[in-house]
Amino acid sequence: MTDKPIKTLTAEQAAAEAAELRPQLLTWGKQYYNADAPTVEDDVYDRVYARLVALETAFPEIVTPESPTQNVGGTTRGDLPKVTHEIPMLSLGDVFSIDELKEFDERLRSNVDEDFDYNCELKIDGLAISLRYENGEFVQGSTRGNGQIGEDITANLKTIPSIPQTLSRPLTIDVRGECYMPKAAFLALNERREAAGQAPFANPRNAAAGSLRQQNTQVTADRKLATFMYNIADYEPLNTRSQSGLLDELAELGFTTNPAYQVAHNMDDVATYIDHYQGQRSDLPYGIDGIVIKANSLPLQREIGATVKVPRWAIAYKFPPEEVQTTVLDIEWTV
Ligand code: NAD
């Protein structure tokens, strides 16, 4: 990757650089999503990805359909049954500074006629899951996969205590959220693995992903996974019409939701929320890698829509990497 200012590049130079970055990102993506064993830190991946986005934004003609910017990362493992997501499971666009966040807000407001609030949420560092309920009964659970087709992990999800088998109302819904491994469970798991001569997991996110894709449900059950649900494929069956109300209604239905959400009227409120939770990050019992802001009105979310990869009504603000990190080769963790 070069750091030449994009403005100084010709389209040919940009295309050549993008053609080098894409296979690199795809290789890292395979190791991260499919093998649950990343070989570089997330911020390295994020920097290269951001460079590719910048190149493709400046020269839209160089975008290819296979580009990691055009596809939700991840595929499905051959040994697991497949599930088609009728409403795709998307990724999130990301920004790394308050200035970029303000640009996102200005762009969105310039395309929307009405005034609106955001709902601020913690960005839980786990993996996305989808839970299908028919008449209030849990019938199927899946991973995001490539966003269109995920893996059927129903039996494993049934072992997670925070996932209700029956809802408080007989709704037919697809609820989406994050499955994660609490920090304490991650530390204990890696200690056990090292004692048994097994390679430790690189981070709680990969440990959670590996634990959910087990053939033996008892292994998943022993891994102490937890969930926070935050989305629904189609909000029609709910009473609420806001994102903050959706979190309350999901909790009433029996799901575990993250309590640290807050409605923000403007970017100053958002910045205050970010500051607060960035400070709390290391004290939380689970990993967060940023915060997500979402237009709070569900009908407005629907009206704004999505690209092939990300909703246009939400964005993730990514935190800088934590000072103390785990790596595959050098396990260090202090809490
Ligand atoms: P992402 O994880 O950055 O963001 C999208 C995901 O955020 C959603 O799918 C959802 O699962 C999750 N999320 C958590 N809390 C949420 C909330 N409150 N509301 C909505 N969504 C929430 O995007 P991604 O496409 O899953 O993965 C890309 C990221 O994965 C990269 O930014 C990089 O950090 C990491 N990655 C790392 C490597 C590596 O080699 N280290 C490789 C590939 C990807």
UniProtKB/TrEMBL annotation:
A molecular function (GO) term: DNA ligase (NAD+) activity
Annotated NAD(+) binding sites: D42, D43, V44, Y45, D46, S91, L92, E121, R144, E178, K294, K318
Active site location: K123
This protein's UniProt keywords: DNA damage, DNA repair, DNA replication, Ligase, Magnesium, Manganese, Metal-binding, NAD, Zinc
Domain of life: Bacteria
Coiled coil (residue ranges): none
Primary role: DNA ligase that catalyzes the formation of phosphodiester linkages between 5'-phosphoryl and 3'-hydroxyl groups in double-stranded DNA using NAD as a coenzyme and as the energy source for the reaction. It is essential for DNA replication and repair of damaged DNA.
Family under the similarity heading: Belongs to the NAD-dependent DNA ligase family. LigA subfamily.
Name listed for the protein in its UniProt record: DNA ligase
Source species: Levilactobacillus lanxiensis
Lineage, uppermost ranks: Bacteria, Bacillati, Bacillota, Bacilli, Lactobacillales
Section covered of the full-length record: 1 to 335 of 677
